[in-house]
Fold this sequence. Notes:
Helices cover 29% and strands 22% of the residues. It has a single domain (30-220), classed as P-loop containing nucleotide triphosphate hydrolases (Rossmann fold, 3-Layer(aba) Sandwich). Helix 3 runs parallel beside helix 4 and helix 4 crosses helix 5. The protein is α/β, with parallel strands linked by helices and 221 residues long. Adenosine-5'-triphosphate binds next to helix 2.
Amino acid sequence: xxxxxxxxxxxxxxxxxxxxxxxxxxxxxxxxxxxxxxxxxxxxxxxxxxxxxxxxxxxxxxxxxxxxxxxxxxxxxxxxxxxxxxxxxxxxxxxxxxxxxxxxxxxxxxxxxxxxxxxxxxxxxxxxxxxxxxxxxxxxxxxxxxxxxxxxxxxxxxxxxxxxxxxxxxxxxxxxxxxxxxxxxxxxxxxxxxxxxxxxxxxxxxxxxxxxxxxxxxxxx
Length: 221
Ligand SMILES: Nc1ncnc2c1ncn2[C@@H]1O[C@H](COP(=O)(O)OP(=O)(O)OP(=O)(O)O)[C@@H](O)[C@H]1O
Ligand SMILES: [Mg+2]
């Protein structure tokens, strides 16, 4: 049986209750607005460590955990189990850690559940697996381009900026990057952040560059 209803609504027309006033992602750090956040950095640079901090207080959270790096939540391993769990819990609080067996194949189904439920945070590891430089699936594009209107915060994690679809970086409100060495990754960041983004090549261990509203700062968790 398809995990997604034939009308395309993963939740078959059931809509969640009125939005609660639960705290949103990064509320303490960055305010209440829902947003797209991207984290770049080489292997072992501290991306997932930072991502875990950002979602620490989230109580409506879906983690698309391709590398099995997260543990603070209910682990689910196939779309059928995710569906059962999600239909039961999506009106309330949940922290789902989805460990896909076939990450590319299962991604759109999880995007549809996330989009239909709304009012949640959706964190995706290995973002580069789910988009190419020229293509993003319609289900994923919905999250990226319309997610904020459904009260969805999206956090994408990827090693390299180069090759990430511009649709995604153009929607990003905040971009973190740990140290980058490859000229084309640095050039990609400079192409929309300006030359100041060259500091990514000088960052120390676990130090990140943070870009928001055209402003670049350096920091560490
Ligand atoms: N700010 C930090 N302070 C102390 N330890 C850190 C910090 N950031 C990361 N670490 C540690 O460094 C190691 C690598 O961090 P992390 O797993 O977040 O890297 P990553 O960028 O996600 O790597 P990968 O690309 O392999 O997924 C972990 O053991 C983590 O606990
Ligand atoms: Mg990681």
